[in-house]
UniProtKB/TrEMBL annotation:
This is Replication restart protein PriA. Residues 220-386 form the Helicase ATP-binding domain. The gene is priA. It comes from Elioraea tepida. One of its GO terms (molecular function) is 3'-5' DNA helicase activity. Zn(2+) 1 binds at C447, C450, C487, C490.
Length: 741
């Protein structure tokens, strides 16, 4: 009987070429298939490859599972190269897939965060250095050449030509002539692959409470025990010292440690603490790094040469081959949420990465998020608590200044009790911090003659006066214009009036009030990156500054031993607006700011200027009763079914034309899941104007999906979006678990 050819009738056809799915770092929904060129090994999932797309060649990752399979074999394009970098681990590939599913972003868009620098994927160019050619008779050389030879016999490593000449004390011509004569040869310089020595630092002697917490965390890291632990305790209670112990344990086992910080670029002091504890600096990862630094750091992480990485949220996607622990410091910070592109929350996804890697995660905060506290309550996270400030430092005394009773003078913003307290502190040679979370001179400029208000042409926002640069600026889109002499609406001259304070205006008031005081203004207008932040911090530490006036840049993380007074210029500022988390945020921020006072041996004092001293947040800050505040806030969220007791997702519709935005929002509303947007465990709210109804010239509407915790929100959203017929001129963005709205 005839044998059956499994290939079908066309038996002469060459054997099928291997095809592999490759995910490319572009907003693509799936991996594309590529042919493996003949004679190549079939690259396993995780291999980093170069693949052609259109006219380009891109770095991508051999992905798991089937590819698109739609391209007929004859048309399949071949891989261009297998790149000489360590493969992407399965844990990272699964994290990317998870983040894509969770945020409804295309997996390729998530991959882009994990392959951020194409150049990092190229093999490093070998560098060359000079050594003595074998067999050279050193004794027979003339004097200048002999000196070069002497250096090379003493230090037989590859030398750069210029350095060699300098070390030998000869001109560069001597070295090049020796090279031409074949007395010196060039050999590749090995890459600086040495692990930093992390054993020369000095751990402090821990307090009993710290030691106990450190013991528990060290054990979890040593045993690779998965699960998350909340490490909480007031500001200055020594939490950082405790988590550094967990980091040390990971490193001691030859594993890597990742510490996520909000606004890393500004945490020079934190990085310095790592250096002191471990004897050498950690690898640092954030958006301001130069391309060269990104490439080197990415490679160092991938090759296991960076034992400790301190980074902003995107460090979550670095290619650690063997992670031992993830720490999220200041876990309550909204800065961990990425608001554009892939809208992921780095704290939540850090928990996912730790889970996928089977390692412990540590969430650190003096004022934990309600999400994390709810997880503790549900028994999902463990909790370690440090009860008091380290050493002799007590908690600062917090008082509210009732602005109704003691208002500032007209056109001023510091009330008499606050002025008196600043004078006292300065008189004792101590430092004071005035906090106002608003850049610029004044948030609103209006014309006294006609009432005209300066409004951004592109956004639903006022223009903020910046007096040093003499401009009116929009803080949302970057629009800027000069401050005019006359009102553009009525032509009146000299009638433009600033309304309300920004830090520049508070600084001006202070220069008048406290003429001898040395004042430092710290905001993103004066601080550009890690360098200037460190510069300011050093000045404050050296006591070259008496009075610090700052935005939230100074609120967090800093440790200034001589700072004893914190004045909050407008404690009510964060409570305006209808945001679900306004009270929680305000409490966290003001508690953090207050925590800057009295961190060493002299007692601290915090004064809150408020028009509503009976408001819940003010009472909680004054009493210091965090637990009660949390209990009240939780009860409200639970009663309303809001997070962390329910789930939310937002759909933001935007379009250049208001009518298109409205039509798109209505189309979404019509396609809403359930009956009229209501179903088992969920409800659709809106559309309503988004909090910034016009932003960068785009009209924005918002719909909210509010659901129970057990609802599969992603499935509802996917189904919803697939059915809605949204006008093409409109854009829909999905924000699962929005942090602000
Ligand atoms: P937190 O992270 O809770 O705000 P830190 O770890 O920053 O607290 O500690 C506050 C201050 O106390 C820091 O200056 C830190 O160096 C110091 N400190 C904390 N624990 C110790 C200790 N066991 N020995 C000496 N100094 C300590
Ligand atoms: Zn604007």
């Amino acid at each position: 009987s005839p044998t059956i050819d499994p290939q079908g009738p066309d038996a002469k056809r060459p054997a099928a070429r291997a095809r592999v799915p490759v995910l490319l770092p572009l907003p693509l929904a799936q991996a594309y298939d590529y042919a493996v060129p003949e004679g190549w090994p079939v690259p396993p999932p995780g291999t980093i490859v170069a693949a052609p797309l259109g006219g380009r060649v891109l770095a991508g990752v051999v992905w798991d599972g089937p590819g698109d399979g739609s391209v007929p074999e004859a048309k399949l394009r071949p891989l261009a190269a297998l790149l000489p970098v360590p493969p992407m681990t399965e844990a990272l590939r699964r994290l990317i897939a998870f983040v894509a599913r969770w945020t409804l972003a295309p997996p390729g868009a998530v991959l882009r965060m994990a392959l951020p620098v194409p150049a990092a994927l190229e093999a490093p160019k070998p560098r060359f250095g000079l050594v003595l050619a074998p067999g050279v008779e050193v004794g027979s050389l003339p004097k200048a050449r002999a000196r070069v030879a002497a250096v090379l016999t003493e230090a037989p490593v590859p030398w750069a030509a210029a350095e060699l000449a300098r070390a030998a004390g000869v001109g560069p011509g001597v070295v090049s002539s020796m090279r031409n004569a074949g007395l010196l040869v060039a050999v590749p310089i090995p890459e600086a692959a040495a692990l930093p020595d992390l054993t020369t630092g000095s751990p402090p002697v821990l307090s009993p409470a710290q030691a106990e917490a450190a013991r528990v965390l060290r054990a979890a890291v040593a045993e690779r025990r998965p699960g998350a632990t909340l490490l909480d305790g007031v500001t200055g209670s020594g939490k950082t010292e405790v988590y550094l112990e967990a980091v040390a344990e990971a490193v001691a086992h030859g594993r890597q440690a990742l510490v996520l910080l909000p606004e890393i670029a500004l945490s020079a002091q934190v990085i310095e603490r790592f250096r002191q504890r471990f004897g050498s600096a950690p690898a640092v990862w954030h958006s301001e790094l130069s391309t060269a630094r990104r490439r080197d750091t990415w490679r160092a992480v991938a090759e296991g040469r960076a034992p400790i990485v301190v980074g902003a949220r995107s460090a979550l996607f670095l290619p650690f081959p063997d992670l031992g622990v993830i720490v999220v410091d200041e876990e309550h910070e909204a800065a961990f949420k990425q608001e554009e592109g892939v809208t992921y929350h780095a704290r939540d996804m850090a928990l996912v990465r730790a889970h996928l890697s089977g390692i412990p995660a540590i969430l650190v905060s003096a004022t934990p998020s309600l999400e994390t506290l709810a997880n503790v309550e549900r028994g999902r996270h463990a909790r370690l608590h440090l009860p008091s400030r380290h050493g002799s430092a007590g908690m600062p005394q917090v008082e509210a200044i009732d602005l109704r009773a003691t208002p500032p003078a007209r056109g001023q913003f510091l009330s008499p009790p606050l002025v008196a307290a600043i004078e006292e502190a300065l008189g004792r040679g101590e430092q004071a911090l005035l906090f106002l979370n608003r850049r610029g001179f004044a948030p609103l400029t209006l014309c006294r003659a006609c009432g005209h208000r300066f409004q951004c042409p592109n956004c639903t926002a006022w223009l903020v006066e910046h007096r040093y640069v003499k401009r009116l600026e929009c803080h949302h889109c970057g629009h800027a214009e000069p401050v005019p002499e006359a009102c553009p609406a009525c032509g009146a001259e000299g009638a433009l009036t600033p309304v309300g304070p920004g830090v520049e205006r508070i600084a001006a008031e202070c220069r008048e009030r406290f003429p001898g005081a040395r004042i430092a203004e710290m905001s993103s207008d004066t601080i550009h990156g890690a360098h200037s932040a460190a510069h300011y911090a050093a000045m404050i530490e050296r006591r070259e500054v008496d009075l610090v006036i700052g935005t939230q840049l100074v609120a967090k993380g800093w440790h200034f031993p001589h700072l004893t007074l914190v004045g909050v210029v407008d404690a009510d500022l964060g409570l305006a607006g209808g945001d679900l988390r306004a009270a929680e945020r305000s409490f966290q921020l003001l508690h953090q700011v207050g925590g800057r006072a009295g961190r060493a041996d002299r007692p601290g004092r915090v004064l809150l200027q408020t028009w509503a001293p009976d408001q819940r947040v003010m009472r909680a800050l004054v009493s210091g009763d965090i637990d009660r505040f949390v209990a009240e806030e939780m009860a409200e969220r639970q009663a309303g079914g809001w997070p962390p007791y329910g789930r939310l997702a937002a759909l933001i519709v935007s379009a250049a034309e208001a009518s298109v935005a409205d039509a798109a929002a209505l189309a979404l509303r019509r396609a809403a899941p359930g009956r009229g947007g209501e179903g088992e465990g969920f409800r659709v709210l809106g559309p309503a104007p988004a909090p910034l109804a016009v932003l960068r010239g785009q009209h924005r509407r918002r719909l909210l999906l509010k659901a129970s915790r057990s609802t599969d929100v992603q499935a509802l959203l996917r189904d919803w979006l697939s059915r809605a017929e949204v006008p093409r001129a409109a854009r829909v963005e999905v924000d699962v678990d929005p942090v602000s709205f």
